[in-house]
Amino acid sequence: QVQLLESGGGLVQPGGSLRLSCAASGITFSTYTMGWYRQAPGKQREMVATVTLPGDRNYADSVKGRFTISRDNVKNTVDLQMNSLKPEDTAVYYCSANRIYRYWGQGTQVTVSS
To answer: Which residues share a beta bridge with 57?
Structure first.
């Protein structure tokens, strides 16, 4: 059974930082492209950042220079370090594991507000 368990969401003030973590089980982690996506109220789910096995990283333009994705192929985790957070970063953040089929976590809420 595949499980992607996210943690680390919460409420933060503008300019603050949060670190999201996703622990994967039930998959051969090292063969999957891992990523973080987000969905704000009334909007479609969008890609935030992805990282392949060789470590190639891809970021949405809106988060470049502020967010960093990293993976640990021993612990089977993928993290998203989010700095300089803005109110428009408010969303539910989802962990994703993609190869032939894409798996999703349950999501974790991130709220950026003063």
So the answer is: 51
